[in-house]
Design a protein that fits this description.
Blueprint: H1 2-7, H2 12-35, H3 39-85
């Protein structure tokens, strides 16, 4: 079910949310495995968590750039409207 939701993620925001859920799962499994002294498997889950965290960071940067571009466009529109209105 999660893989279907992930495959159908249509935006950076949706993908980020799904990756955050994956990160929480990996972190929880790593903590559980460390608690039962299964450090080999805990390390694998920790490595996955690190990889996922990197992907989340990249997606957040993309979202920030998109937001910045939207804000620049909006500011340009407002400035143009003010100039046209004589303000």
């Amino acid at each position: 079910m999660a893989s279907t939701a992930y495959a159908s993620a249509k935006s950076v925001a949706n993908e980020t949310l799904l990756l955050q859920a994956d990160l929480a799962i990996c972190s929880a499994w790593a903590a559980y495995l460390r608690s039962i002294d299964n450090h080999v498997h805990a390390l694998k889950y920790s490595e996955n968590a690190t990889r996922i965290a990197g992907r989340i960071s990249s997606l957040r940067e993309l979202a920030a750039v998109d937001t910045l571009e939207e804000l620049k466009e909006r500011a340009h529109q407002v400035d143009s409207a003010r100039r046209a209105g004589g303000h």
